[in-house]
Structures are given as structure tokens and as C-alpha cells.
Design a protein that fits this description.
The chain is mainly beta. The chain has one helix and twelve strands; from the N terminus they run ββββαββββββββ. InterPro entries: Biotin_BS (IPR001882), Biotin_Carboxyl_Carrier/Decarb (IPR050709), Biotin_lipoyl (IPR000089), Single_hybrid_motif (IPR011053).
């Protein structure tokens, strides 16, 4: 098992990888463990999409309500921190898309369990931004 540190959208993750199948120069099968959750992944030369898919699988296993990007863009502002209490309608993020600033607001009162994007991060529709309890 090898440990790697991976930065995705400005967030740093510690990932343990165990090789499951014989490697080739184009791909290898591996098991990743993040926050105690195990997933099998296939890592190929172009890993960006597959890493995003693996992260998406992990995100779906997180308890709480997921706050996702409504459209592709760049995060201009992150107005919350992990552990913050938030109120319904509170501005959590400002997302720039098509040269317009879009406010992403809390859908309800709650506590921020995780913030999964940093200022300046690029997002696609459906990317996880935060999880609230």
C-alpha cells in the first residue's frame, strides 16, 4: 500500500493506493481508501476524468445534504468553513459562469460538514462544493 497526496480543485487529499492487478504502461487497477471508504479504480494515462469519477463515488457516500455546482464555472468566493453553523439563504459560494456572478445559497439551516472546493477552483455541473448536516 502506498500513500499519495493529491490536490483536486485546491483541496488536498491523502490517498492510499494498493495495486490489485498487474500494471501496464497504459493503466493499472488499484484500491483507494479515503476516510475509511474503500473503492476500486482503474487509473489510465488520462486520469483526470477517472479521478473525478472516483471522487464522485466517495462524495455520494458522505452523510448529509450535498451542495453541488449548478453550472460550470470558477469559484470566486468561499464564504463558509467546515464546522460553521449556516442559515437558510446564507451565501455559501460565489460562482462565476458566463461572466456573471452567481450566489450559491444554503437550502436550509444546518452545520457545514465539509467544504470540498477552494477559491479559484474550476467546477463542472454537479461537482460537490460542500456537505451540510
Amino acid at each position: 500500500m502506498k500513500k499519495f497526496y493529491v490536490t483536486v480543485n485546491g483541496n488536498r487529499y491523502e490517498v492510499e493506493v494498493e495495486e490489485l492487478a498487474e500494471s501496464s504502461k497504459d493503466s493499472c487497477a488499484a484500491e483507494t481508501i479515503n476516510k475509511g471508504i474503500s473503492n476500486n479504480v482503474l487509473i489510465e494515462k488520462d486520469t483526470s476524468n477517472r479521478l473525478r469519477e472516483a471522487k464522485s463515488v466517495l462524495d455520494k457516500k458522505v452523510n448529509g445534504e450535498k451542495i453541488e455546482a449548478p453550472m460550470p464555472g470558477i469559484i470566486l468566493s468561499v464564504n463558509i468553513n467546515e464546522g460553521d453553523k449556516i442559515a437558510k439563504g446564507q451565501i455559501m459560494f460565489i460562482l462565476e459562469a458566463m461572466k456573471m456572478e452567481n450566489e450559491i445559497m444554503a437550502p436550509r439551516d444546518g452545520k457545514v460538514l465539509s467544504v470540498d472546493i477552494a477559491k479559484g477552483g474550476k467546477v463542472d455541473t454537479g461537482d460537490l462544493l460542500a456537505v451540510i448536516e
